[in-house]
Amino acid sequence: MTETLVLQGTDITEAFETHHISQRAEQMLPKFYVRQATQPRNVRFTFHEHGFYRTLKRRIREQLDHVDPAPKVHSRRILDALLGAVLVTAYLAVRHESFAIGLICAICVNATIIAAHNFLHQRDNWRMYAFNIAFLSYREWRVSHVISHHLFPNSVLDMEISSFEPFLCYLPWADLKNSFQRYGSWFYGPFIYGSIFLSEYLKRLMDSFSQGKNRFHLDDVIPFLLPAFMYATNPDRVAVILQMWLFVVLIASFFFGLIGLSAGHHHPKALHSGDLFPYVTLGIDRAK
What we know:
Cytochrome_b5-related, mainly alpha, transmembrane helix
């Protein structure tokens, strides 16, 4: 109820339009009508009935019953295989005290989280919990990533842009970053990548104390299942388990940042707010 009161009056037009392909939710809206909005919308996106987006939704709605389910099954098998690979490599890394195998385990953990990302976009399912395997929270990422980033990617409204500032400034605005932020990030950026996972957990811990409200849920114990498995299969190597677990989490976090931030979302060819739109690439004559 508290969250509802805090969010009362918030413009969620984009979230509503993109998350409800069918018309059932829209048909329920008149029951909750209060009044016309008194303030202009935050963004200039339009959703006219015969505009681009509504037309696209209608056409997609007509095709949903004909979508081939095979890729969905394949995606599930990939994630299941990755979870199995995490357990096998975690066991072998501790058994042989091998950080080389631990590196493979970290790569598998990172791949598992990336694959589990597909499932936190869906309705609640058990595979979405795999996203929490290394201290991330599918609950928080449904807000910062699914609702914020996917609706307003690489813009000033994207929480995944502002959350890394002032250390990593991805928008191409000269007054947003000084020389140290621009060039120093080449050197300290990898350390930030390595701290993403642990910092997410510490952030929830600090918020719980500072706000006086528990920010944790039962699924926040999932990150501790991997070291528990390591201990169950190698109970006589506690010190090795702690070292290997920390190594796996840090390296997996580094690869997550390297792939997700540098190579993926913020590659130099990725469009950001403030960039010049690549008209030439799209074959559009700017003079027209």
